[in-house]
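Reopening this ticket.

The earlier resolution said the output was attached, but the attachment link was broken on my side. Pasting everything inline this time so it's all in one place.
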Amino acid sequence: MPIKIPDTLPARKVLEAENIFVMSRERAAKQDIRPLRILILNIMPTKIATETQLLRLLGNTPLQVEIDLLQTATHTPKNVSAQHLLDFYKVFDEVRGNRYDGLIITGAPVENLAFEEVDYWQELCEIMEWSKTHVFSTFHICWGGQAGLYYHYGIPKYPLEEKLSGVFRHRATGTLHPLVRGFDEYFYAPHSRHTGIRREDVLKHSELQILAESADAGVYLIATGDGRQIFVMGHAEYDRETLAKEYERDLKRGLHPRIPRNYFVQDDPQTIPPMIWRSHASLLFSNWLNYFVYQRTPFDLNELSSK
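Inline output:
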């Protein structure tokens, strides 16, 4: 899928080198179609890496997608330049009057804090409430998924005995649901988190359906019946080396992390991890775009509030 992104966005060179179809705004303007409008609320500290990971996956179908990057105004990131944010990101006040086909809310390394203790929590709540009338389908990732389940359904998160880090086998359970159409019965996906949700809490809400879960990592994929809310408890978007970089970071911080499970060859951090989840990640994102964004969003986005 051609992705409309600024020519100077760092992700552009990486994606072009991988033969991902990216398109200039000038060329896109000559195509007589309405692109899907996707807003990405990026609250990961590794902004540029996360941009690239998500754009790679959004570039895997024939649909044209126009991306807006959103940051929180109530939190100042420390791991990206102010100029990068100024050049490529908007704040909520700049987009609150817009309507979008889809919204992605990323994870964030704040699981050990209560939701209300996160400095941008109130702003995030405002964005999630706004999404009900201004976004057709919202895709929540990891902590973003926990935050969405807590805000919309009051489902709590619980601390884990140790950080869950690694690549785990999952089983697709909602096999007739369009979001998992084409999934293998068993597939792999990365996790990296300190907290989790409980299956029994999800089952209390009839409008929520568990579509995939893992014996080791728990509930993985949840969707509402109408597909307007998607919750992913892991990080399908992660690159091959992302868990390795997190492991090295935690080592340097003296946190004595456990080696990510099922990740390095023979648990040797000097080896190159095999990439065994990319096909799942590509299918997950393309199914979301196709079945819950492209085929269901009204052509005139102004109709969203009435729907």
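Reporter confirms the inline version is readable. Confidence is low (pLDDT under 50) at residues 28-32. The radius of gyration is 19 Å.
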